[in-house]
Amino acid sequence: MKKAVVCCIIAISLLLNTDGNVFGGAEIAKASSISTYKTTANINMRKGASIKSSRILVVPKGKKVIYISKKRTKNGTWYKMKYKNKKGWLNGQYIKVVKTIKSVKHENTPNAAKVKTTKENIAIHPLIIAHRGGANHLASEHSLLAYKQAVDKKADYIEIDLRLTKDNQLIAMHDETVDRTTNGTGKVSDYTLQQLKQLSLSDGQKIPSLEEIFARFRKTTKYYIETRKVDGKTVMEDELLKLVHQYGLEKQVIIQSYSQDSLKRVKSLDPNISLILLLVGDTVKNVNINAVKQYAIGVGPYAQLIDKSFVDRMHQANLKVHAWFDHSNEKELIHKTLQYGVDGVFTDYLADTQKMIKK
Ligand code: G3P
Ligand code: CA
User: Fold this and answer.
1) So what's the architecture of 127-358 in CATH?
2) Of 52, 63, 69, which is closest to residue 8 (Cα–Cα)?
3) 79: enclosing H helix or E strand
4) pLDDT value, residue 16
5) Residue spans per domain, the chain
6) Which residues, judged by CB distance below 6 Å to any ligand atom, belong to the binding site of ligand 1?
7) Ligand 1 pocket test: which of 127, 128, 131 has the largest number of ligand atoms within 8 Å of its C-beta?
8) CA distance 106 to 95
9) Averaged over 112-116, what is the pLDDT?
10) In the predicted model, what is the mean pLDDT of residues 264-282?
11) The whole model's pTM is what?
């Protein structure tokens, strides 16, 4: 096995010049600057390598690919790898070739014309985030059962919208009021946690607190948590970070917000937590990339407002793109959005999205 890996590294090294540009003919698509992409070219490995043909995978500059394990499928041998960046370990991802490229040069202007809009352009294993826990007809959104189903189906992250109760407890709920999702009425902030527990979600379950969710799933999943300002103030972040630290989940959370102040507050409490700035409306086209880079790992734009050039622009700046949809337009937009090469999608149709992205 070791031999095969070495052969792969050598073979691919031969395809790279000292600047790290990819050689190999016009059929090899240029990689954009951040996400891991498959190219469209088949590369013959050296004699003796156990992989007869495979694909080049270009990793972001400075990221060291580390081989962990392999598995054989009818589609070939796949290697699970990790790569490391300044912020710490990222997710294990499946790639087809194991190698280390230390000097891949960033493409300042990815050649969009040469990047085919086929399945090959989908970033390798974009994160699949179970939106509101994988809102579906089987369980109420943001309920422990919805989260359990998403965890069982191996969503990469479960998404949690936060609200703060009258007694400063964080709960999982999207809306400001309990009207739409429970049998009660009124603002979450007018209820204590104990009072909220008297209400029922549409399927009879109880509203979970963030702590209950952490206590239930611990490190068996990852958490993609949305903060909001309350009355213009950043009041959720301290309690949130307290719980993240208490449960040792620093490396298993991404915190998202439309509020830069909120994200900056989180960063001040723990500079190692991954942060995503949500974008909607004019903030998508007007996003200040240099400002975002100071504190976040990427952006979370409304999918309807992006195109490939937006994704490329973010990747050139080394920013991730995690796109979200409305329940009503996800089916229409998701395939196109994945083709843009986004690094993650929030989905209400977990199983369908997982099928779309073969691991
Ligand atoms: O947080 C990203 C995405 O969830 C935005 O949609 O459901 O919070 O309105 P939502
Ligand atoms: Ca959300």
Assistant:
1) Alpha-Beta Barrel (3.20)
2) 52
3) strand 76-85
4) 32
5) 2-121, 127-358
6) 131-132, 159, 161, 174, 226, 256, 278, 300, 324, 346
7) 131
8) 20
9) 31
10) 97
11) 0.69
